[in-house]
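Priority: medium. Attachment 1 of 2:
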């Protein structure tokens, strides 16, 4: 995860990639997704979708308070380090406490100390970090530390998250899942799990994948817009970015998909965009004259794409680790004493058994 007050230019971000060895060699993939970085959260994928980079743009403490994870490593760059040193004692305390909330025992820290780093170092030590080397050795360089508090760290993640992790320990250890439904939803989650080393069996009642709405000849992927930039609008942009990246990896450009842009003709005059729509937002949507009616209001979506959904479904189901089973209509699910789910058809025959089941059968899901 990367936090910053405002979206950095690609050239600036690229120059900082050397701090993250795991991202080495992924510059082309990241640059392809480096557009429309509005304030908020963004997900960028690397390593063929196996690794997710979360980019948080906005006020640092507010972004940190939204997180529900524990970090193995924290890197504080020169700009953030300088900003922390300018904060008052109380402000610094709140900032570092928000950071520590995402740390666990043995979390490592690397910080560009700059000049006059003693106060910042002392504040971090007070919160449980142990530094390597003497204070005089840290000036004008990178300091290394490890989170090792002398007290039992209080974990502030929600009880729901803790229960969720505990309840699925067996499923995560076994890495075996059954997905019901072979449309866009089922195929995408199956492929996502398979990329992370899971064995996934996809059961579908039809004789071919994408037998429902996912089998339409073509679909249009465009961002949703609203005057208040609602969560629905932000979620649609995140989904479009990830969909375009998956399509670029798995489909043939010009034959199965193309991000050729899309013109949305508005039926009413308001454009639907926020009044203070920034320049980064224009990379998603902006006003444009309608060639059919110059007096009408229209929106141009530069990243709008047409796509053949069935081709994407088949590409996902064809990934290593995914087994697709046709003509397998699930009639009943029951849970055994060992916690595994057994799925049977209307004849009572067992179709699959696994510790984790994902139901993605569209209109059939409620009845099941």
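Attachment 2 of 2:
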């Amino acid at each position: 995860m990367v936090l910053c007050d405002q979206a950095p230019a690609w050239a600036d971000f690229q120059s900082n990639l050397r701090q993250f060895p795991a991202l080495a060699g992924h510059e082309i993939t990241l640059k392809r997704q480096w557009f429309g970085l509005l304030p908020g959260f963004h997900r960028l994928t690397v390593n063929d979708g196996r690794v997710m980079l979360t980019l948080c743009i906005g006020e640092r403490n507010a972004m940190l308070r939204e997180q529900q994870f524990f970090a193995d490593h924290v890197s504080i760059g020169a700009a953030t380090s300088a900003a922390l040193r300018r904060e008052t004692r109380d402000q610094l305390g709140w900032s570092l406490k928000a950071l520590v909330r995402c740390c666990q025992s043995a979390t490592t820290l690397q910080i560009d100390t700059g000049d006059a780093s003693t106060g910042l170092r002392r504040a971090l030590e007070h919160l449980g970090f142990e530094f390597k080397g003497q204070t005089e050795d840290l000036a004008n360089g990178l300091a290394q530390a490890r989170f090792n508090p002398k007290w039992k760290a209080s974990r502030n993640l929600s009880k729901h998250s803790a229960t969720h992790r505990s309840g699925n320990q067996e499923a995560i250890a076994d890495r075996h899942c059954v997905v019901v439904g072979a449309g866009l939803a089922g195929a995408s989650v199956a492929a996502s799990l398979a990329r992370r080393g899971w064995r996934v069996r996809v059961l579908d009642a039809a004789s071919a994948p994408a037998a429902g709405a996912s089998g339409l000849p073509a679909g249009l992927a465009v961002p949703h817009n609203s005057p208040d930039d609602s969560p629905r609008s932000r979620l649609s942009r995140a989904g479009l970015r990830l969909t375009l990246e998956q399509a670029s990896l798995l489909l043939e450009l010009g034959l199965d998909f193309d991000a050729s842009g899309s013109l949305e003709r508005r039926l009413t005059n308001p454009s639907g965009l926020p009044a203070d729509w920034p320049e980064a937002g224009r990379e998603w949507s902006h006003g444009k004259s309608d060639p059919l009616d110059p007096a009408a209001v229209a929106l141009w979506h530069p990243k709008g794409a047409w796509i053949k959904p069935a081709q994407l479904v088949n590409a996902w189901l064809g990934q290593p680790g995914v087994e697709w089973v046709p003509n397998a209509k699930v009639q009943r699910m029951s849970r055994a004493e060992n916690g595994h789910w057994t799925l049977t058809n209307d004849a009572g025959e067992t179709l699959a058994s696994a510790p984790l089941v994902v139901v993605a059968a569209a209109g059939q899901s409620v009845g099941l």
